[in-house]
Design brief:
With 256 residues, the protein is α+β, with helices and mostly antiparallel strands. The chain is built from ten helices and nine strands.
């Protein structure tokens, strides 16, 4: 089953016309795809309109970068549709205007993001993640990214972090030992989120005790990510999770 969002682009009309399969998602300028398309047409000085259809599969407010990824791919897709009127640097500038994490999704590699997230340094694929699968579970509720960052101020240890910690994670991921790398994974935003939503901490504890090498929150939540070596063990972990917590949660198994 394909769990990614799908975007379709077509030239024609005037302005930006967006449709979406999820009625909970706005299709006006409140939508990042709509805003990305509007910025692109303005920057490229294109007077022709565009029609966009978004088939939504990634849960909303899940911490999986669905909205930001769709915005970035809108910029890339429209640039291709209109025969590359903008340079990669111009696209990066538009992406940064849309959101701090949007530039990350203009490229396909792992990357180190610095500054406010818009400074992207692509990295090689990590040896420790070869043959690794991620079991994802969404609890059925979303978490506001703005709230998570605001609440992080109440946890100075997590907010300030430790200098060089991100680069250490990159270094250990370059090795072939997932067990070693997994011990270095962290997400500073877990500090406020797990306090407010203890169910997510229960998910992590269960997944770690049932075969996951690492389990942590994705982005600002609310999705939990568990890493497992091999597809069959990931599927077995998923079955154990469903037996414990029920079948009503959104889940996915994704190769890394």
């Amino acid at each position: 089953m394909r769990w990614c969002d799908l975007l379709e682009f077509e030239r024609g009309g005037t302005g930006v016309y967006l449709t979406c399969t999820d009625p909970a998602l706005p299709t006006n300028s409140a939508n990042l795809v709509h805003r990305a398309a509007t910025l692109f047409l303005q920057a490229a000085k294109i007077t022709e309109g565009v029609r966009i259809h978004l088939q939504k599969k990634i849960p909303l407010a899940a911490g999986l970068g669905g909205g930001s990824g769709n915005a970035a791919n809108t910029l890339l897709g429209l640039n291709q549709l209109f025969s590359q009127p903008l340079s990669s640097g111009q696209l990066s500038g538009l992406a940064a205007d849309l959101g701090s994490d949007v530039p990350f999704f203009l490229q396909d590699n792992p990357a180190l993001a610095t500054g406010r997230g818009e400074q992207i340094a692509p990295l090689d694929r990590f040896a420790a993640l070869q043959g690794v699968f991620a079991f994802l579970v969404h609890p059925g509720f979303g978490i506001s990214t703005a709230w998570a960052y605001h609440a992080l101020a109440n946890y100075p240890g997590a907010l300030n972090g430790r200098p060089g910690r991100g680069k250490k994670v990159i270094a250990v991921l370059g090795g072939a030992d997932l067990e070693v790398a997994g011990k270095e994974f962290y997400n500073a935003l877990e500090a406020p989120v797990l306090d407010k939503y203890p169910l997510l901490a229960l998910f992590q504890e269960f997944l770690r005790s049932n075969g996951a090498t690492a389990a942590l929150m994705s982005g600002s939540g609310s999705t939990t990510v568990a890493l497992v070596k091999g597809q069959a063990p990931a599927e077995q972990l998923g079955e154990k999770f469903k037996a414990k917590f029920g079948e009503h949660y959104w889940t996915a198994i994704v190769p890394l």
